[in-house]
Q: What sequence folds into this?
């Protein structure tokens, strides 16, 4: 809640005119409580879980019907019907209503404790980006170790096996997991904002971007035009797909966002070996295809 009655009063307090964005924020948030603003995350998460994977459903349906997009599918032998994908969405929504939504409603005291602010001035773009980088790095490191723990015998059999039901992940399967895993993985999500608390808008952006990233990572497609390919040490869909492909025995590619933890702790050796092998096979096929006067290898 903003402690000023008017834009003029806020301008006086800041000693300058409000920017256009600050006026928009003032008009929207001045009479809303911080709890109400925090609960916007429920709506954002619902929209992201529902809408962001939709283009992937269309791509998968086109691929199943005509083979379009086959070249971008990481595990092309696996085809998901519309009803498979809808079942996954239905289960994710159940989890959303029973766990994620209520968790958002009751976790507000932690937001108060770490002092997420909702007033003016708004943070600069640089501040938002710097905090988001910190949040992603902290989440990635913490998630790596929790995920690795979930792959011990007890953790996998009791909890994590549900997330691995999809050996070839789909967008809707990003949050598909045991309720206990959903709760525990809330800790790395909150840890970054707890270390470097920012504005409510930064917090909204963080929650939204983290979920969109998880959906992309579970998309099952490696599109060459994906912009995240330009982010240094970014794992992406192919990287995490390997983790699901190997399944329960997987001791590889635990990281949720970047690749550096797996590299440092030596848990990407199987993946790198497999990637090198596939590259060699591809190059040899290309060579023999040329020698036989065949068409361009694809
Ligand atoms: Zn796993
Ligand atoms: Zn996964």
A:
């Amino acid at each position: 809640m903003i402690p000023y009655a008017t834009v003029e009063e806020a301008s006086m307090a800041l000693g300058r005119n409000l920017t256009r964005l600050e006026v928009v924020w003032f008009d929207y948030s001045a009479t809303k409580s911080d709890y109400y603003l925090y609960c916007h995350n429920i709506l954002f998460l619902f929209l992201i879980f529902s809408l962001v994977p939709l283009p992937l459903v269309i791509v998968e349906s086109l691929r199943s019907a005509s083979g379009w997009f086959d070249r971008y599918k990481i595990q092309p032998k696996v085809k998901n019907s519309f009803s498979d994908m809808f079942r996954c969405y239905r289960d994710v929504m159940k989890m959303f209503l029973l766990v994620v939504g209520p968790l958002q409603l009751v976790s507000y005291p932690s937001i108060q404790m770490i002092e997420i602010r909702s007033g003016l001035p708004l943070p600069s773009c640089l501040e938002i980006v710097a905090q988001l980088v910190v949040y992603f790095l902290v989440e990635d490191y913490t998630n790596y170790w929790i995920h690795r723990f979930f792959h011990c015998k007890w953790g996998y059999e009791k909890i994590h096996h549900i997330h691995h039901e999809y050996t070839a992940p789909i967008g809707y399967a990003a949050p598909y997991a045991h309720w206990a895993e959903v709760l525990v993985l809330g800790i790395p999500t909150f840890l970054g904002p707890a270390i470097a608390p920012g504005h409510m808008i930064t917090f909204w952006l963080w929650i939204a971007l983290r979920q969109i990233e998880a959906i992309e990572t579970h998309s099952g497609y490696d599109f060459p035009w994906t912009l995240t390919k330009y982010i240094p040490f970014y794992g992406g869909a192919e990287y995490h797909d390997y983790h699901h492909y190997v399944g329960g025995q997987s001791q590889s590619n635990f990281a949720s966002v970047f690749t550096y933890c797996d590299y440092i702790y030596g848990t990407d050796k199987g993946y790198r070996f497999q990637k090198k092998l596939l590259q060699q096979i591809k190059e040899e096929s290309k060579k023999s295809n040329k020698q036989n006067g065949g068409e361009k290898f694809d």
